[in-house]
Amino acid sequence: MLTNAILILLFFLVTAGIGIYSKKQAQSRDDFVLGGRRVGAWFSAFAYGTTYFSATIFVGYAGQFGHTFGISAFWIGIGNALIGSLLAWVLLGRRTRVMTGHLQASTMPEFFARRYDSKTLKILSSVIIVIFLIPYSASVYKGLSELFAAAFGLPFVWCAVGMAVLTGIFVVAGGYMGTAVNNFIQAIIMLVGIVLIVCSVLSVNGGFMNSVAALSQVTSEAAPDFAGSFASMFGPDPLNLLSVVLLTSLGTLGLPQMVHKFYAIKDEAAIKKGTLISTAFALIVAGGSYFMGGFGRLFNTPVDESGKVLFDQIVPSMLTEVLGDGSILIGIVLIVVLSASMSTLASLALTASSTAVTDLFKSVRPMKKEKTEVLLIRVLCALFIAVSLFLALAPSSMITNLMGISWGALAGSFLGPFLFGLFWKRTTKAAVFVSMACGVGLVTANLFLNFTTSSVAGAGAMLLSLVLVPLVSLMTKAPKKEVVEFAFSCYDRDVVVKTSSRLSGKEN
Fold it and tell me: 457 by DSSP, 3-state: which?
C-alpha cells in the first residue's frame, strides 16, 4: 500500500509540475487552445489516443461489454483502431488542419459559423457541446473512482475530488501544451500498463488457450442454446455488438474534443506519422481493454441486493482478485487509469471552456484584450471540472449510460455537418440544423422513453446524420457561392513537395 501510494504521489507531482512549467507557453489564445498549431506527430497522436480512451473505456465499457459479449468485445477495440483512429486521421487530418487554419477557426462552432456563414449555428453548436460534454466528463470521474475505491478502500468522493484538483492544475495552468506533454507521458504508461494487465488476467487460468476453454463453458443469458457463445467470434448478440462498435468508433469523426487535435497539428509529415502512431496506440489500449474485459465472467461478478450485475465494478473487482490488494501491479493499474482519465477530462474541459468563451460569450460581448479571453477560458476550465464533479457525485446512471448519451448526442449532431463540410461544397446550413436537431432529439428522447439502449440510439443518431445532411442539402437552397468558394480555396493553393512524396506527372 505504501509503495502504491508513493507511485501515485510521484505521478501527481510530475503531472502538476508539467502543467505549471507549460504556463509560459500558454499566454495567447491560440497557444492556450491550440498549442500555436505547431504540435508534432507523437504529441498529437498520443493526445488523440488518450482523449479517446479514458477510465470509462477501461472500467465501464470493458466491464459491461466484456460481460455481455465475451472475447468478441475485442471487435470494439479493432473498430476503435481502424475507424475511430485510422479512418479519422486519413479522412479528417489534413483537410481539418488546412480548412480550420484558413478560416481561422479554433473551435468546432467557429468552423460551422464561417464554413456555413451562420452565427446561429455557432451558438447552437456551442450550447450542445457545453451541455453534452458534462455527462461525458462525469463518467470519467466515476470510472476512476470505482477502481480507486476497490484498491484502497477510499470513499468515492475523495477519489473524484483529488482527480478534479490535479486535472485543474495542469490544464488551467498549461493549456493545450501542458495537456499534450502530460498526454505523452500518460500514453506511455497506458501502453506498458495494459500489456501487464492482460498478461496477468490470462495467467490466472493458465494462459490464453486455457482461459478461452474456461470461458467456452459459460452460458449466456441472451443465447442459452448457443454453447460457448462467449468464446465465439461474434458473441451472443452480434447486432448489439455492431452498434457499440459504431458508437465508439464512428463517433470520433464528429466529436469536438477529438477533431480538435487536428486543428493543432504541425505539418504534413506529422499527420502521416501521427496516423500510424494513433492507430497502433488504439489497437493496443482499446483492444487490450476489451479483450481483458471479455474474461470477466471467469471471476466473481459483483451484484447488488436484488442480484443485478454491477457493470461498473466488474473490472475493479476482477483486477483486485487477480493482482491482490498489496500488489505493486495495483499501483500500476491505478496510474494507468489515472492517466487515461485525466487526459480525457483535461481535453473535455479545454474544449468546453474555449467553446463557451470563443463562441458564446464573445458573440454577446466582444473582448478587446486577449489576456482577458485567456483568463476567462482558464476560469471556465475550472468551473467545468467542478460542475462535472458535482454531477459525478450525484446519484446517476452507470458509466456507460453517461458516456453513451454524450457520444450519441454530440456525434449525432456534428458528424455529418463536419464531414460533409470539409468535402462537399453543396452542403447547406439547413441540413446542418436538421442534423443537430435530430441528433440531440433522438438521444434525448431515448433518455426519457428508453425505447432502446443508449449505444443503439447513439449509433442510430450518427448514421442518421450521415444520411440527412446530403439528403436535406439536395432538397434545400444551395449555399452562397462566394462563401463556399472562399472556404474551399484553401485546397487549391500550390505547394512545393519532394518527389519522394508526390509524382509530378511529367516523368517519362
Answer: helix
- CB contact at 8 A, 29 and 378: no
| Rounded Cα distance, 58 and 315, in Å | 8
Q: Torsion angle, CA of 285/288/290/293, rounded to 10 degrees?
A: -130
Helix, strand, coil percent values for the chain (each to nearest 5): 80, 0, 20
Q: Which residues have C-beta within 8 Å of that of residue 183, sequence separation ≥ 6? A: 43, 46, 47, 50, 51, 343
pLDDT bin (cut points 50, 70, 90) of residue 508 is very low
Q: How far apart are CA 387 and CA 405, in angstroms?
A: 17
Of 240, 213, 239, 246, which is closest to residue 228 (Cα–Cα)? 213
Taking the C-alpha atoms of residue 372 and residue 375, their distance in angstroms, rounded to an integer, is: 5
- Identity (one letter) of the amino acid at 290? Y
Choose which CATH entry (3.40.50.10350, 3.10.129.10, 1.20.1440.230, 1.20.1730.10) describes domain 2-491. 1.20.1730.10
- Contact call for residues 376 and 356 (beta carbons, < 8 A): no
Q: Which three cell numbers stand for residue 220?
A: 449466456
- What per-residue confidence (pLDDT) applies to 26? 67
SS (H, E, C) 371-423: HHHHHHHHHHHHHHHHHHHHHHHCCCCCHHHHHHHHHHHHHHHHHHHHHHHHH
Which residue's C-alpha cell is 464561417? 114
Residue 455 to residue 247: CA distance in whole angstroms: 6
Phi, psi of 303, deg, nearest 5: -135, 160
As beta bridge partners, residue 265 has 39
**Separation between Cα atoms, residue 260 and residue 274, nearest integer Å:** 14
What 8-state DSSP symbol labels residue 57? I
Q: Which cell numbers in the block locate residue 137?
A: 466528463
**pLDDT tens, position by position, 8-47:** 788 778 888 887 877 776 667 777 777 777 788 898 999 8
The 10 Å CB-count burial string (b at 16+, else e) for 279-315 is: bbbbbbbbbbbbbbbbbbbbbebbeeeeeebbbbbbb
Which DSSP symbol is given to 102?
H
Q: How far is CA 68 from the centre of its chain?
A: 22
271 burial (CB, 10 Å; 0-12 / 13-18 / 19+) is buried
- Residue 492, helix vs strand vs coil: helix
Say if CB 231 and CB 71 are below 8 A apart.
Answer: yes
pLDDT one-digit tens code per residue, 492-502: 877 777 766 55
Backbone angles phi, psi at 309, to 5 degrees: -65, 135
Q: What is the CA radius of gyration of the chain?
A: 22
Report the candidate in 79, 45, 46 with the shortest Cα–Cα distance to residue 61.
79
Indicate the Cα dihedral angle 445, 447, 452, 457, nearest 10°. Answer: 70
